[in-house]
Write a structure and sequence with these properties.
It contains eleven helices and 20 strands. It is an alpha/beta fold. The protein folds into three domains: 234 residues, 3-Layer(aba) Sandwich (Beta-lactamase), CATH 3.40.710; 101 residues, 3-Layer(bba) Sandwich (D-tyrosyl-trna(Tyr) Deacylase, Chain: A); 73 residues, no CATH class. It has a five-stranded antiparallel beta sheet, sandwiched between helices. A five-stranded mixed beta sheet has the order 16-8-6-3-17, with helices on one face. Strands 4-5-7-15 form a four-stranded mixed beta sheet, with no helix packed on it. The longest helix is centred in the C-terminal third of the chain and has 18 residues. The protein is globular, with a radius of gyration of 24 Å. The termini are close together.
C-alpha cells in the first residue's frame, strides 16, 4: 500500500502545487501504517466537526438538550396579559416556524388574546459576535455561512438556522420573469427579481445573492423555460430579528394581538415562565450536524460549551472548553490553531495525524456508537445515512467526515480493506486550484487503500 500511495501522490497532476497530508492507522491498535506529511498543519475544513462533536459529547453529554422559553414580567387577567412577553432563545439550532406556531397556540389555549406590552426577543444567552474568525466575507450570504444567534430559526428540517430558502420557477414562456418565492414567507426578506426566463435550448445561468448588510435577495441571470424549480439556501442579516418576524406572524395567525412594540432586549431575572420547548437531544442533533455538515450547529455547540462550563456563550470561552476536553483523546492542542466549531474558518490548522489519533481514541467512549452513526456512509442512497458521501465511493466500506472550503478538501474516518483489515485514515488537501478535484483524489486514494490493504 505504501508504495502505491507514494506513486499516486508523485504522479497525480491535480496535486501539482498543492499540499497533501495523509495519516493511516490500524483501527485495532492505533499504530501508524502510513504517513505523508501527516504531522504538518492543514486547514481541516469540516473535518473540524470531528473535534467539535467529540468535545460536545464529552462535555455536554449525548442526551443534552437546548431550550427556548416564553416568559413574562406581567400577569394574565381574563384574556389579557398585562406586561411584556419575552421570547428567550437558549441556543436551540433546530427551531422551526412550526415551533413558534405551537407557542402561539399554547398561549391561546391559556386564554391569552391580547398582550398589553411589548414582545421582546432575547438572544443574550450567547454573546453578540455573529461570525467566526477567518470566515470568508463571500461565504456569509449563503446558508453555510449564516450568522450565529441564541435565538434563531430554520426554514426546513435540515435545521440550517438563520436562513431562508429562495425558490425560482421559470415563467410559462421565454421573455417572462420567473416566479420567486421565499420560505418561510415573511416580510423580513425583500426580493429583487432581475432574472429572465429563456428558451430551453439556450445556456442558462441563475444567480442568487444577498446584498451585504441587508435582507435584500437579488435574483438575476437566466433560467430555462424547461428547467425545474431551483432552490438556494440564503442566510439572513440578523437572525434574531428574523426569528421575531416569524414569531409575530405565528402570534397574529393564532389571533393574538399586542399593544406595544416588537424589539430585542434582555429578559429580567424576576420573570415567570409561561412555556418551555426543549430541542432534540445531542445524539439526534449530530445527524444533521455531521451527515449534512451543518456549520451553524458546530458554532452553537462551541458557544454552548462555553456557556455551560465557563458561563459565557462565546467562541473564545467555548474553544477554551474544547481545548481542555481534547487531551482526553491524546490530542496535542499545542500543535493546532482552533478558531471555530465548523471548519469554515480559514484560520483553523490541524495535522492529519491528530485527526486520526482522535478517531482511534474516541472508540473507547460509551457514546462512540452515536459518534460513528453520525458519520456519512459512502454510496448509501438514503441522504440521512449517506449524507455528504451519498454519491461517492460506491462499493467501498467507508464511513467518514468530508470537508470543503475554498482551495481545501478533506476526508477522515474509518474504512475496511478487501482483506477485512479495519483502518483509520485522514486525508487533507490544501492549496487546490479546484477543491472539487480534491474529492476525486480522495476517492482514488481510498480505492488504493481498500484494495491494497
Amino acid at each position: 500500500m505504501m508504495k502505491r500511495l507514494d506513486q499516486y501522490i508523485t504522479n497525480q497532476s491535480k496535486l501539482s502545487g498543492a499540499m497533501i497530508g495523509i495519516n493511516i492507522r490500524s483501527r485495532e491498535t492505533g499504530d501508524v501504517l502510513y504517513n505523508h506529511m501527516g504531522k504538518n498543519r492543514f486547514r481541516p475544513a469540516s473535518n473540524m466537526k470531528l473535534l467539535t462533536a467529540a468535545a460536545a459529547l464529552s462535555v455536554l453529554g449525548q442526551d443534552y438538550k437546548f431550550s427556548t422559553e416564553l416568559r413574562t414580567n406581567g400577569s394574565v387577567n381574563k384574556k389579557t396579559l398585562t406586561g411584556n412577553l419575552y421570547l428567550k432563545g437558549k441556543g436551540d439550532p433546530t427551531l422551526l416556524p412550526a415551533n413558534f406556531g405551537k407557542f402561539a397556540a399554547k398561549l391561546r389555549e391559556q386564554g391569552i388574546r391580547l398582550i398589553e406590552g411589548d414582545i421582546i426577543g432575547d438572544d443574550t444567552w450567547y454573546d453578540a459576535v455573529r461570525l467566526s474568525q477567518g470566515l470568508s466575507w463571500s461565504d456569509e450570504q449563503y446558508d453555510y455561512g449564516a450568522q450565529v444567534s441564541a435565538l434563531t430559526i430554520s426554514p426546513t428540517d435540515d435545521y440550517v438556522a438563520g436562513t431562508v430558502v429562495v425558490e425560482v420557477t421559470p415563467g410559462a414562456k421565454a421573455g417572462e420573469q420567473p416566479a420567486v418565492r421565499v420560505s418561510p414567507a415573511v416580510d423580513y426578506v425583500e426580493i429583487s427579481n432581475e432574472a429572465m426566463t429563456v428558451d430551453g435550448e439556450k445556456e442558462a445561468e441563475l444567480i442568487i445573492e444577498r446584498e451585504h448588510g441587508t435582507n435584500r435577495m437579488i435574483v438575476k441571470g437566466t433560467i430555462a423555460v424547461t428547467a425545474e424549480t431551483e432552490q438556494e439556501g440564503m442566510s439572513v442579516w440578523d437572525p434574531t430579528l428574523y426569528s421575531l418576524s416569524v414569531f409575530q406572524q405565528a402570534m397574529s395567525g393564532a389571533g393574538i394581538s399586542w399593544t406595544g412594540s416588537v424589539k430585542t432586549g434582555k429578559t429580567p431575572d424576576d420573570t415567570a415562565l409561561l412555556l418551555s420547548e426543549p430541542s432534540m437531544p445531542l445524539k439526534e442533533l449530530l445527524v444533521p450536524f455531521m451527515k449534512q455538515s451543518n456549520n451553524g450547529h458546530g458554532e452553537m455547540l462551541i458557544k454552548e460549551m462555553g456557556k455551560a462550563v465557563l458561563g459565557e456563550g462565546s467562541w473564545e470561552q467555548g474553544l477554551e472548553v474544547m481545548k481542555a476536553a481534547l487531551p482526553k483523546f491524546q490530542l496535542n492542542t499545542e500543535t493546532m490553531s482552533l478558531k471555530d466549531g465548523s471548519g469554515i474558518s480559514h484560520f483553523n490548522l490541524i495535522p492529519p495525524s491528530e485527526i486520526s489519533k482522535l478517531l482511534y481514541h474516541v472508540q473507547r467512549e460509551e457514546w462512540f456508537p452515536v459518534f460513528l452513526e453520525s458519520l456519512p456512509v459512502a454510496g448509501h442512497a438514503d441522504r440521512i445515512i449517506g449524507g455528504t458521501l451519498q454519491d461517492r465511493m460506491h462499493g467501498l466500506h467507508v464511513q467518514a467526515k468530508t470537508g470543503t472550503i475554498h482551495a481545501v478538501s478533506t476526508l477522515s474516518g474509518y474504512t475496511e480493506t478487501k482483506t477485512g483489515e479495519q483502518l483509520i485514515f485522514s486525508i487533507m488537501i490544501n492549496n487546490l486550484l479546484d477543491e472539487e478535484e480534491g474529492k476525486d483524489i480522495e476517492d482514488e486514494l481510498l480505492e488504493i487503500i481498500v484494495n491494497a490493504g
